[in-house]
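Review form for a predicted model. The reviewer records the input and the model, then writes brief findings.
Reviewer: anonymous (R2)
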Amino acid sequence: MLLLAGATALTSSGCAGTVPLDAKGALKRATNGPLYVGAAENLPWTRVADDGTVSGPEADLIRDYASGIGARIHWTRDAVSELARRMKDDQLDLVIGGLAADTPWSDKIAPTRPYRTVRSADGSKQKLVIGVRPGENALQVSLERFLARRSGEL
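Model under review:
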């Protein structure tokens, strides 16, 4: 009886089917709308050309993800330190640039689960992640599900 009452309370409060939640509604806004992505050059993963064009395997991943949710990407090109600041100020949804799982920016960027392991120049293994605005849990889960389906394609 208590279990039924709890389920009824969740359903009537509007919580059923809405987990995980985004603090600022990023996934809802980005679906068929704008997705704000910061890109820092870090070859070979992300390249920022002199004309501002963003390319590379991570840019391709983000384009494919955005296409899947009907989003239009608005790129911001800068150093990771500046992109992390902008993300903390709620100006960006995602950050790419060959970010490692142990990124020093984790106080401003919520890293996805590693989607790829690569060898660094020194031979060590590095796990790559994409930065998501902290608190945007539905966006992060949506992106991680996409990355899981695409794992190994980079």
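Findings: Confidence is low (pLDDT under 50) at residues 1-16.
Further findings: The helical segments are 2-12, 26-30, 57-69, 80-88, 137-150.
Recommendation: see findings above.
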